[in-house]
Amino acid sequence: QVAEALAHAHERGIVHRDIKPENILLDEGGRPHVSDFGLAHEIEAESRMTVSGMVLGTPSYMAPEQAEGRRDAIGPPTDVYGLGAVLYELLTGQPPVVGSGIFEMIQQVIAVDVVPPSARNPRVERDVEVICLRCLEKEPSRRYQSAGELASDLGRYLAGEPILARPVSSMY
To answer: How many CB atoms lie under 10 A from the CB of residue 88?
Structure first.
C-alpha cells in the first residue's frame, strides 16, 4: 500500500525524498499512510529552496544519489530505495545502514554494499530478499524504476506468483 501511495505521488510528479518508518503512519484500521512531504521535490521543476550538492534526508534510509548531493539523479528510484530500506528494517529489525555518526552513515550509503537481509535474519525468504536488494541497488538504473513496479512485484510475491526481479548474478 505504501508503494502504491508513492506511485500515486510519482505519477503526479512528486518525489518524497525522506521515506522512513517515522513517515509511514497507521490509521485505526492498520492502513498505512505516507506523511511528511517536507522534503518532497517536483520531478520536473527546479526548486529554489534546495541548493545543488546539499544533502537532504535521513542517512539510514537515504539513496546514494541523495547522499552524494546529486539533485539531477533524484527521481522515483530514490523513493524506491527508501522503501527498500524500510522493508529491510521490517525484515531484520534494523535499517540497512547503521553508524555512529551522519558522515559515517553517508559514506556507507555511497560505498558499502548492504548486508543481505537473510544474513541478519535467516527466516527471510529468497524472493522477498531479492525484491529488497533490488530496491537497495547503489545505481538508480538497477532499482525498480517506479514504486508501481515495486508494488506489482510485492503483489506477485504475496500472491505466491513468480516475481520479476532476479538476483544479482555472480558475474556482476
So the answer is: 28
